[in-house]
């Protein structure tokens, strides 16, 4: 990887810190294998102060609302990461500074194989830098678009739902509700395992997948579109919506206007294409219940016949939290 200090928005200033997990691995394959063995990728440097001097900056990986993401490598360990560069002025303008700080603290303490690691952060006068796990296969949504019919088959969908349910169960035990589970927030590791990538401070590019106004509504549960109190069961609903989208290529309540989407969500107006199996439909119906308390719990998802049948050959270690 060539060092590139001319990348727009990246300067060589340093500042405060947070721990980065390091490894002696020099490539993504070994980095991932190391991470799978020890659960986090290497040893923590509790008092390390990070700056751009610690990294070789590579190609841009993505452009977002608050900044850009670059491939990078920590110089001493050769550990490959993704470096998100967020501009403070834009964070201030959007009034999301406090949210960013809170979400950084949340994700920095999450350890699960299906949750993208936040290794640390630092900042200067102009920018905040997030040191993130690199997911080489990129956005799950793009992978879905590339499928022959624009959606995944049932076996692959079941694998992703299993991994998502496992990650969400872990989050909920930590009293973390994601509230924003959607394909754009999901990445894929080199081996094709799902990674939840964003916890409220996403800098992903504005979605190219949907040009209608109803994009933000598609994944919201009835209690949120109706302005009612909500709890972790919002994530159970999102799991049902994602299962539908994995299998059908579009979310279940998509419509031409916000009002129509709102009405379809409130009525739980579900229609299934003929290719969806009865067992898959059963799981989605049990997750997409209007009353949050009636939604299938995450243990129920993990033990559902559709999941068990289609993931019986799936390695169990990928769903084990650390």
From TrEMBL:
Keyword Nucleotide-binding belongs to the record = yes
A single GO BP term for this record reads: chromosome condensation
Q: For the Protein kinase domain, which residue ranges apply? A: 55-307
- Give the subcellular location: Midbody
In terms of one coarse class, where is the protein primarily found? other
Q: Which reaction does it catalyse?
A: L-threonyl-[protein] + ATP = O-phospho-L-threonyl-[protein] + ADP + H(+); L-seryl-[protein] + ATP = O-phospho-L-seryl-[protein] + ADP + H(+)
Q: Region annotation Disordered: residue ranges?
A: 1-45
Q: Which keywords accompany this UniProt record?
A: ATP-binding, Kinase, Nucleotide-binding, Serine/threonine-protein kinase, Transferase
Sorted alphabetically, which PROSITE patterns does this protein's record hold?
PROTEIN_KINASE_ATP, PROTEIN_KINASE_DOM, PROTEIN_KINASE_ST
Binding positions (ATP) = 65, 84, 133-135, 184-185, 198
The protein's name: Aurora kinase
E.C. number: 2.7.11.1
Q: Does the keyword Transferase apply?
A: yes
Class of enzymatic activity (EC top level): transferase
CDD domains named in the record: STKc_Aurora
Give the family per the record.
Answer: Belongs to the protein kinase superfamily. Ser/Thr protein kinase family. Aurora subfamily.
Q: Which Pfam families match?
A: Pkinase (PF00069)
Here the segments flagged for biased composition (Polar residues) are: 1-14
Renumbered to this chain, the Basic and acidic residues biased-composition regions fall at 31-45
One Gene Ontology term of the molecular function aspect: ATP binding
Where is the cross-link described as Glycyl lysine isopeptide (Lys-Gly) (interchain with G-Cter in SUMO2)?
182
Q: Which GO terms describe its cellular component?
A: midbody
Which residues does the entry assign to the active site, renumbered to this chain? 180 (proton acceptor)
